[in-house]
Design brief:
- The chain is α/β, with parallel strands linked by helices.
- The chain has a single domain, classed as Winged helix-like DNA-binding domain superfamily/Winged helix DNA-binding domain (Arc Repressor Mutant, subunit A, Orthogonal Bundle), CATH 1.10.10.
- 47% of the residues lie in helices and 10% in strands.
- It is built from 7 helices and 6 strands.
- It has a 4-stranded mixed sheet with strand order 1-4-5-3.
- A hairpin with an 8-residue loop joins strand 4 and strand 5.
- It starts with a strand and ends in a 32-residue tail after the last helix.
């Protein structure tokens, strides 16, 4: 396992990866590993103990899962010069998880599990934010938050183009890569899902 020693708090250069290795997808299908990776992608380098506090596990268990993610190149260990517990960071600033072979039913099943976990994790975060809204969320953040859904009529190519435009608007604010966050900035969760409406005619 290789170790790197950049400042754990420094922004990472943009590095978006597409993961098609079925073994890596299977490793991520474990809900705790996916939660750990999502946490690292939101908040940057963290130790196993810091991850454990967030995902509701132990430091030793998180350390085991971090090493499993590292075997597939999904996270990297940062060197610890003073002998303390070393931090880990996401190996990329953005991942797309997709089984490479559309005819491999096992691979497609793992991809589906990951997609379902993505939906479930987003819903859990939104519910937790609602629970904290009246107790701990400052008024300016309550006013700035939004929740909206739309039913659009469009072609596949239009949907693809819309996704690219939204990505271009959002990308300058990515937490791991933004090098000039103004005072008062914080990590915000934004989730966009677009799909052919399941109740419509095919």
């Amino acid at each position: 396992m290789s170790f790197i020693n950049p400042d754990a708090g420094a922004p990472q250069p943009e590095n978006r990866q597409r993961v098609t290795d079925v073994r890596a997808l299977r490793a991520l299908a474990h809900p705790l590993r996916l939660a750990i990776l999502n946490h690292l992608m939101s908040f940057g380098a963290q130790t196993a103990s810091q991850c454990a506090d967030v995902v509701g596990s132990t430091a030793s268990n998180c350390s085991y899962h971090l090493r499993s993610l590292a075997r597939f190149g999904l996270v990297e260990a940062l060197g610890s010069e003073d002998g303390r517990e070393r931090p880990w960071r996401s190996a990329a600033t953005g991942f797309e998880f997709r089984a490479g072979d559309d005819n491999n039913l096992a691979a497609k099943a793992v991809e589906r599990v990951l997609n379902e976990s993505h939906i479930d994790d987003g819903a859990r975060l939104a519910k937790r934010a609602l629970e904290a809204r009246d107790l701990a969320t400052p008024a300016e953040w309550r006013d700035a938050a939004s929740a909206a859904s739309y039913s659009l009529r469009m072609t596949p190519s239009e949907l693809d183009a819309l996704g690219e435009k939204l990505d271009a608007l959002i990308r300058p604010y990515i937490a791991l890569t933004r090098g000039d966050p103004p005072a008062g900035s914080a990590v915000v969760h934004l989730q966009l899902d677009a799909f052919l409406h399941p109740d419509g005619p095919r």
